[in-house]
Design brief:
Strand 2 and strand 3 form a beta hairpin. The protein is elongated. The chain has strands at 5-7, 16-21, 24-28, 44-46, 54-56. Helices cover 0% and strands 35% of the residues. It has a three-stranded mixed β-sheet, with no helix packed on it. With 57 residues, it is mainly beta.
């Protein structure tokens, strides 16, 4: 079970969560529509205050 949550289910949120394992997460940026590159991304992370997390994009 993950000790934190990653969410992009809000207006203009953009992230793909491939895996959460303990305090580490493997993420990817969803390509922008009609563009060959990713222009921007944002997401929320919910965890206990002071948690040490590793997010790999």
């Amino acid at each position: 079970m993950a000790i934190f949550d990653i969410n992009a289910a809000f207006d203009s949120g953009n992230i793909i969560v491939h895996e959460i394992n303990g305090t580490e997460a493997k993420l990817a940026i969803r390509k922008d529509r009609e563009s060959e590159f990713a222009q921007w991304f944002h997401f929320r992370v919910a965890a206990e205050p002071g948690s040490d997390l590793t997010l790999r994009i």
